[in-house]
Amino acid sequence: MFGKPGIREEKVLAISPQATDGLESIPALLHRNATQFGDKPAYREKEFGIWQSWSWADTAKEVEALALGLLNLGVNEGDFVAIIGRNRPHFYCSMVAAQSVGAIPVPMYSDSATDEMAHVMDHCGARFAVVQDQEQVDKIIDIQDSLHQFEHMIYVDPRGLRKYDHRKLHQFSHVQDQGRAAKEEFIDELEARRAKLTYDSTCVMLYTSGTTGRPKGVVLSNRNIIETSRASSDFDHLGPGEEVLAYLPMAWVGDFIFSIGQAYWNGFCVNCPESTDTMMTDLREIGPTYYFAPPRVFETQLTNVMIRMEDASRFKKKLFDRFMAHARKVGPDILDGNPVGAMDRLKYALGNLFIYGPLKNTLGLSRVRVGYTAGEAIGPEIFEFYRSLGINLKQLYGQTEASVFITVQPDGEVRNDTVGVPAPGVEIKITDSGEVLYRGPGTFEEYYKNPESTADTKDAEGWVATGDAGFFDTDTGHLRIIDRAKDVGKMSDGSLFAPKYVENKLKFYPNILEVVVFGNERAECTAFVNIDLNAVGNWAERNNIGYASYQELAGHPQVLEAIKGHMEEMNRSLADDPMLSGCQLHRFLVLHKELDADDGELTRTRKVRRRIIEEKFHDLLTALYDGSSEISTTTEVTYEDGRKGSISATLQIVDAAVVPVTATQVAAE
Questions:
Q1: Predicted pLDDT at 6
Q2: What sections of 337-424 are H helices per DSSP?
Q3: CA dist., res. 578 & res. 574, Å (int)
Q4: In this predicted structure, what is the pLDDT of residue 328?
Q5: Neighbouring C-beta atoms of residue 667, cutoff 10 Å
Q6: Range among 1-15, 323-337, 485-499 with highest mean pLDDT value
Q7: Residue 425 Rama label (left phi>0; alpha psi -120 to 50; beta)
């Protein structure tokens, strides 16, 4: 099922340890960029509707002023500095300033609940924090009595904080001013600390998403970040002229690599949107050349496109459908440089003039030269949609523990069912049980204060266990990930159970936001579904269907019928797959609430916590398998202000038609 047992499957590309020419820390890269690209923009930020720019020379001065201010506050080498806020130049500069004084930045999710924040800050022993505004200040004040090591907090936005106790609370700009004033006193110390930084110095500590338990602190060195950034930049021919949009959580390793590692290695510009609400507008204004988004972002963009087309005139809808059908047929081949007939190219060019070009412009992706998606598997239909438009979207497979890159897809070898070849410098092998292992220059140093987990994950030879099941495709040599190893199982009849694959196929439909599939060691597969309130709400408005809440709309008979239709269409496609035909869905229910990170059902990176959902909704899962046609339930929820409440509902359980598996398919399995 996972390839030949006992056979090691490895691919290696060595990296020269001299490739970085002595640039062994992020502050050293900043100094080089300020010298070589002094007037070139390093950061842009949109504030009050206006883009403001900082050059590399400006950035170096801002970082130095803050670093001097941190020394003035008493930051020691080895201290941990929590960074909490949205993507802003202030926070990227804070991370580099912390590194400059020998401290370790710990970016955190700005939407973390206080208990999540307390766990991270207590675990790492953060003495200092740089935060965005009053909301973050209040969160830390609420927990600071339990943080015995915590001393000083620096805030960027002063609104609402004038009457707070400022003995250990400091405004960002004031810390910089004090640093400038004390330059003569501290500059020698700052230069000495910067000079001490080596490849082996800790660059950053990032916490895992905590899918199965408490998040772990992943220690990444300068070697991990810089070598990974150099190799991945060479692979995709990145340079100083790239433009990226920094909008993903700073606590996530992807943002750190793209907005710090690769940005500082190449000297390109990082653009920070004004807010999450203006992100799409800001994306269109910047027109990035290098773009990364997790599958959920691409799914949301596609849903919005489909909603707009439902509202379009019949002529426009027909024109869109006709040209998109042609794009799916020839677009990927044109993008990869494969032979395509002259008439097909001409029709595609017309489609680009009337449909694809304007659509890419609307999405803000007109200038994308290289685009990546990762974090979890993307549905093949969604992936092919973007590539059919001529967007060079590729998949990568990575982890926080790998400094992102484990595999990458070379241009011209992009497939929707694989994640590519080993990244430069990375070795991969498949165990007898089918688990993917890797090692390379980005391999993390350790889990902080957790030697047991470190030893369980990384062996003495540096091989890291990913927890994912996969195999190398014999035809292409590309890695194919089946699912999380702990989630892949067997149906009661012995057929393969791979829930993530099924979930991703269903999320292609605009009506469906999230799916959780069950069936391990059972005779049938079933599912919980979250509708997409934006898409389904738009449908309700067009059809003059009134509703008062998500719960009411989710239980509407026409909505249930539409979801049933999607399920049955997917079942028909699964029936043709000998390996996964047993994963057809027999029954489902639409949940009465959206799965939420605040309720512990999702991680902060929006990954499903499957085991927690099974336990929390045990009564619903039981009803899916005991023949019930409906189930009444009450669920505890967390409101935005942290208060707890509950919601009750009676949910309908819907049967979906499945396609019988033929004898030929059984034999193939």
A1: 36
A2: 342-351, 357-363, 380-388
A3: 8
A4: 94
A5: 8
A6: 323-337
A7: left
Q: Is the four-CA dihedral 598, 116, 74, 25 of positive or negative sign?
A: negative
For tokens 């969604």, the residue is: 382
- Map out the domains of the chain with their CATH numbers: 26-197+242-288 (3.40.50.12780), 295-484 (3.40.50.12780), 489-668 (3.30.300.30)
Residues 6 or more apart whose CB falls under 8 angstroms from that of 445 comprise: 202, 219, 220, 221, 224
User: Residue range 492-517: average pLDDT?
Assistant: 88
CA–CA dist 282, 601 (Å, integer): 31
In whole angstroms, give the CA distance from residue 203 to residue 224.
8
From 257-261, 265-269, 571-575, the region with the lowest mean pLDDT? 571-575
Q: What is the pLDDT of residue 213?
A: 67
376 vs 171, more confident? 171
| Token pair for 335 | 């993008």
Average pLDDT of span 37-53 = 95
Q: How far is CA 344 from CA 236, 322, 393, 492, 504, in A?
A: 29, 13, 22, 48, 30
* Alpha-carbon dihedral angle through residues 470, 474, 477, 480, given to the nearest 10 degrees: -20
Whole-angstrom distance, CA of residue 118 vs CA of residue 147: 8
What is the pTM (predicted TM-score) of this model?
Answer: 0.83
Q: Which two tokens stand for residue 376?
A: 């979890």
Are the CB atoms for 398 and 374 separated by under 8 Å?
A: yes
Tens of pLDDT, residues 511-528: 999 999 999 999 999 999
The amino acid that residue 318 corresponds to is K
Tell me if 85 sits within 8 A of 250, measured CB to CB: yes
